[in-house]
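Data availability excerpt. The first of two example chains:
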Amino acid sequence: MPRTSAFLYPWDVNGDPAAAELVAGLGVQQVTLASAYHATRALTPRHPGRRIVTARHSAVYYPADPAHWAGSALRPAAQTWLPGEDPYGEAAAALGAAGLEVHSWVILAHNSRLGREHPGSTVRNVHGDHYPWAPCIARPEVRDYAVRLAAEAAVRPGTTGTELESCGWYGLEHPHAHDKIAGAPLGGYGRWLMSLCFCAVCEQGYAEHGADPQRLRARVRDLLAPAWEGRPVAGELTGAEAAAVTGWRAAAADTFQRETVAAVRERARERGLPGFRVLLHAHPGALALGANAGADPARVLEHADGVVLPCTGDDAARAEVLPPFAAHRRPHTVLAANFQIVAGMGGSPGTLVDDAAHAASLGATELRLYHAGLATADDLALVRHALDRLP
C-alpha cells in the first residue's frame, strides 16, 4: 500500500481518548496535523465532548516564541478556543503513541486576521479593494512573516515533516460567510484578473517585467467592464501584457516558496532532523490560486521534497495535475495525491481504490486523505476497506 496520511486538527484528538487509535486503525501510516491554521467552523462527528469547533481567526496551535518574532511587523495570533498551552504538541504526542508519524500542516498566505489588522500588506485589486484574506506574497513584510511562521510552525516536537499550504498567491475566491460575489459573469479568467495585485510592490514588479503599471491597470479594468453589465469578460491580456504579469507573479511565488522551504530546512537542521520532509500543496497551472497555489513543477521540485496535489474528481482532474510534476520527479520526490474522503463535502470514499490506482498510474507515490476528523463513521469505514484493498 502506498504511504498514506490523513489530515487532522488538534481538536479532533485532544479530549478524545479513542481518536488516535481510531485513526491508526484506518491503515494510515501518518497524520498531517494542523499547527498554524486559518479561521474555520468544523464538525467533530465522534468527539465525546463536542460536535462543532469554531476557530474564530487564524492562529497557531502551539506557544509561539516571542524571541523568534522580535522585530517582525506581522505576527501570528494565539488560539483561545482549545484548552492547554500547546494543543498541537498534545495531539502529536497522542498520535505518536499510537504508532503514527506526525507531519505538521502549516497555512502560509491565507490569514484574514492579519489582513484586517494590516490591510496594506494584502492583495489590492485593480479597483483598489484590499482582500483581507490574501496577504500579498511579493511584499517583504509578508515574506518575512511566512519565513518565520514556516520555520516555527513546521518543526515542532514529535514532528518529522511538514506540508505547507497556500504557499503562493491567493486571490478573489475565498469561502466567506454569507458570500455574495457570484452575481457578475466573471468566469475563470475574470476571477483571475480580479485576483491580480496592484499594490506598489506589484506595480514595480510589472514595470520590471516590461509593462507600464498604469496602462496595465486600465487594460484590466477595460477587460472586466462588461462583466459588471452582465456580459462576458472582453477578451484577454495581450501576449506582452500577460508575459509581464505572469513573469512577475511566477518570480514572486518562486522566491516565496524557496525562502519558506529554506527556512524550514534550516530550523530542522538546527534541531538535528536531517531527514525532515518538506512538501508543498500545489497545482501546475500558472493561474492557479489559493490553497493549492500555482507552482512551476521543474522549479519547485528543485528545492522541495515533493508536492501534495488535488486529485478529487474524475480522471481528467488527476490527469491535469499529476503528469506535469511526474515529468520532473527525482528518485525520492513525493507526489502525494490528495483525495477528499468526506462524502458530504464532495468526496467519494467508496471509489478510493480505483481513484488511487489511477493516480498511481499517473505518477502518484503517496496518498493524502482529507479529512479524517471531518468524516463520518460511514466515510471512515469505506476508507478502512479501501486501504485494506490497496496493493
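And the second chain:
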Amino acid sequence: MLDFLLGILSAGFVDNSLDTRKIDRNIELLKNHIWFKDIYEDEKYHRLFFVNRNVRQYLQSTMRVKRMIKKEKSQRVFLVFLNKQLKK
C-alpha cells in the first residue's frame, strides 16, 4: 500500500508517459503465476490491463511487480486496486 501511495505522490514530479514494453514485460512475468493468470483471464478484469491508465501505470513498476510475485499481501492489494478501477 505504501508503494502505491508513493507512486501517486511521485507522479506529480515524474514524467507520466507509460512504457508499453515494460508494462507488457511485467504482465508476462506475472502471467507465470496462477493467481495472476486467473485474474488476467477473468473477463471482468481483462480489459483493464489494456485500457486503464491507472492499472497500466501500476504495472509499470518492476519493483511493485516483483513484490506482488513474492508477497501474498501485495497480491491482495492489487486485487483491491483492480476492483476500485472497475467502479470508475
